[in-house]
Write the structure tokens for this entry.
Amino acid sequence: MSRNVTILGAGLVGSLLAIILRKKGHEVKLYERRPDMRKANMSAGKSINLAMSARGWKALELAGLKSDMETLAIPMYGRYLHQPDGQTAFQPYSKNNEAIYSVSRGELNRKLMTLAEQSGVTIHFDHKCTGVDVPNNVLTFGTPQGEVTEKADLLFGADGAFSALRNSYTHMDRVNCDHFYLEYGYKELSIPPGPNGEWLLEKNALHIWPRGKYMMIALPNTDGTFTCTMFMPFEGEVAFDKLNTEADVNKLFDEQFADAKPLMPTLMEDFFTNPTSSLITTHISAWRYKDKSALIGDAAHAIVPFYGQGMNAGFEDCTVLSGLIDDYGADWSAILQEYERKRKPNGDAVASLALMNFVEMRDKVADPVFLERKKIEKELGKRYPKEFISVYEMVSFSHIPYNTAIQCTQAQDRLLGQVMSEGNFFENIEQGAFCDRLDNWMSAYHKEVQQLDFDNEAG
Amino acid sequence: MSRNVTILGAGLVGSLLAIILRKKGHEVKLYERRPDMRKANMSAGKSINLAMSARGWKALELAGLKSDMETLAIPMYGRYLHQPDGQTAFQPYSKNNEAIYSVSRGELNRKLMTLAEQSGVTIHFDHKCTGVDVPNNVLTFGTPQGEVTEKADLLFGADGAFSALRNSYTHMDRVNCDHFYLEYGYKELSIPPGPNGEWLLEKNALHIWPRGKYMMIALPNTDGTFTCTMFMPFEGEVAFDKLNTEADVNKLFDEQFADAKPLMPTLMEDFFTNPTSSLITTHISAWRYKDKSALIGDAAHAIVPFYGQGMNAGFEDCTVLSGLIDDYGADWSAILQEYERKRKPNGDAVASLALMNFVEMRDKVADPVFLERKKIEKELGKRYPKEFISVYEMVSFSHIPYNTAIQCTQAQDRLLGQVMSEGNFFENIEQGAFCDRLDNWMSAYHKEVQQLDFDNEAG
């Protein structure tokens, strides 16, 4: 039995969800607060590039857009570290040469919108939802033509961290919620192509300049440019509030980003024109209201960008929802209830993983002990392919529930602590006695984690 | 230099603040979303009685209302416990015969409104604030005559847990907030006077029927009635969702509240007419915006009622603000900044103390070990009046900052653990050797806590 579906937000998740629901035979209307980005020039100077990984690709495949996007995605096989003294190091993400993929958010969003329209979805632009009467599913929009109301049959809020539907949920009795900002902001900078259109840094890597309390990253684009993002405290010793003049910025880049600076001819313009944006994490206890509405993507779980999982997590929400529709048919009460039960723990987990990965990226990646650990993790994954997958690989290269990945973190810390407590691993591993102990540690680890739910995105 | 002050909410805190600011020569307008409670009959069947203690009285004294209210307040010198088998016990609150005072919320609120008007404050009823443009201090109200806007000079949000000003703050960049509900609800019940207008339970006590996972309390009113409140999980084994028929309620009261039931002739009517209400705790990181606006009372820190400190904490906000105005004169930027710096840690602390006291009231008060501890605390307070004040006494009978009280909790748990680990205290205390050890424990405790801020409500 087909429903009339209303989706708030024609961003990545909203557009993808529209395509998936349309394919299942539902009528779908999308409401987007901004004008059509395919017509207007919408670069806001604040879009962190996307790092598409397994979960994202799987959902794109459902929508029929995977092969199309693959031609526009740049594989990044690892982290490329830039030290203050100009030394660099490459740190592969995977033992199996797997990659995460740099994708332009704008390009992907435009393709998703067009595909949605081609499959019969109507998109209403310039419709800013200003409130939802949740029990009655009545929406109010501000439009250039004035206020408009609309009664929804089945409603999804895919309208991002500041979701109107989420906001209406937060005012309902017994709905718990929180949001908090990092003390860090971010600012977009850029590296243009070389004289022959070539990439001026290694193309197939995610570049990081880790500086302890702050960092810069750079992701490749198909046009030869890199999009750089500076993450830094709003206030503090080295902080955005201390960078007020060109001299301040020059000094910082001369001292800390000497290898990148010559590649950034528009540094000053970028720095003083682009906004300094904030980074929010949100939680909410209700992801749905009866069989009438649900939150999805950032609207349900806005997270910080440090694991590159924001879009991937939102797309996985769509994959799981799609599977539940196949399982439960027309019983939307069951579909939304199961969706909430399955996805909320994973939304909370990916939010925590993203916060944890910030410390790793800005600080630990430059630490020799950490680098050694990453190498050992790879070796363990090769030697014990059934028993051991690193948390990073679970998150980026598998469909293992985020909540399982985060539950493995402590057990892996303990295991690696044991392994590394005996000195040089790659020497030890030549010794039979050490290998026996390793077998024991590994089987204890495996016993501890195997009771967890490793079932893929049905998680 | 006098300001034009706008206050949202003519509840207890808003009305008191209006009086205090008017006394200092400011123009004050109060906006209240409800009609005038002095004209309409406003009993909503969901007002937990107030337990006025030291902090509340101090603020009433500032407003000039203390002696007037004292004649209408009923001292409660301790907890009066009712066991399922009908046994009772009295547990005094203080070593010095101090009391907390049962006060009618409606009566106090009406008196505060009238005093505010008499001192020159205008109160606009039926004005529901629907939004605040915080940077511009522009308020929008819904009224029976339609929408009204108003530009404020200096604005206070005293509009409770669901404050419109708080809500607008939560939408500002880098403002962190959360709210959560207990899994418990509450319902108001009542005990009428006896045939000669007399109180049917001990008048000068706070009655508790502690039942582990739920409890009932009763506070005396001046008209011979008691207001009872049942606190119980919304869902569960013994829970509101299981009490659907008169037979269900009869069974519960026969088994668990056999001594109270004969005193409650309107039990069924009360139970099935009065709403089951929820219990919220809120936190927000910004208590003020520049020199333009601030939150106060529940709007800044909504807490659960289990320490009887909600009104007391809000009144203390007013006392502290009043002191800061005296200190800083016309520098409202400094006044509001200091107000936030001093009060926010105490607002967070009293929220936590209130949550902790729920466990104490519904469960621990019936535990002989806990009762013994309370007796020992009193004895310690007598023997070491300079070194030891119990956390309960700090909260209810002193002006020591809530944040200091909560910081003493662990040290007191450790001290009492030591004292009680050696068996019967009141026998041990006759022994010289034990007294020496007690001196040592006490001086270690005192050393640990004396670095804290015990300065009164200037906290």
